[in-house]
Amino acid sequence: MSTLQRIRGLCDNPECRRKDVGFQQERRRGTTMELIRHRLPASWPANAAVAVLPRNSRQLVPIDVTRVEALRQHLERIVIEAEALPDAECESKETSATTHGVEPQQAEMPALAAACGLCAGHCCATGGDSAWLEPTTIRRLQRQLPPLAAPRIIGHYLDYVPETGYQDSCIYHAENGCRLPRQLRSNVCNQYLCKGLAEIVQGLEGSAEPCVTATVIGVSPVSVALIDALGVLDIIESTGG
Length: 241
Ligand code: SF4
Ligand code: SF4
Hints:
- The chain is of the alpha+beta class and 241 residues long.
- Helix content is 45%, strand content 16%.
- A hairpin with a 2-residue loop joins strand 7 and strand 8.
- The structure holds iron/sulfur cluster (2 copies).
- The site of one iron/sulfur cluster has 12 residues, from strand 1, helix 6 and helix 10.
């Protein structure tokens, strides 16, 4: 190995590098778990399962008009494309998202919505100026609602854009969460459940105890909450120290 490889403790073999990714992830997880365990009050169940969630740390900024224009153009395009879709395609082709094994019935657990609130929408960064909306989303709405003219649909979506939202996140991602009503959201947004939420489901279903749920930035916990199926029972927020 070269001097640099010796310092890194890793050669350039692609297989070694692939294995190292998993190893580093496990190491970071171990550090995070240790930091979380240090924060747990003595009054909380000692053997509670621990779920780890990310935490949105973006700044709130005014939504720029160029972003609204980008959304308008996207909506105009998908509304036209929606009209051209054959009926058979609309039923099956709305893009799906992973739930990390959480079943639809488990996804209704109020604790999961509470956990997303603690995380403050880290995953919404993927929404950009199109919010995962696609022609099949428009066709779903058209099936569910009485007939609507295209400009009315576009105007309705634009009405929900907040004045202030998180920088570099979805155009609908505002301080108190997603501004779009569920029915107007894409299937991706309505379906996606991150790995941390799956850990909460496993933790709560595998034990009669509540579950510890921590939001982290890097390896450091920001908030540590005790939750049961109905939501947050107790919470410790980081004081920044
Ligand atoms: S799904 Fe996960 S990453 Fe997305 S808001 Fe909820 S807890 Fe955060
Ligand atoms: S539409 Fe709502 S749920 Fe979907 S990415 Fe944007 S803010 Fe998040």
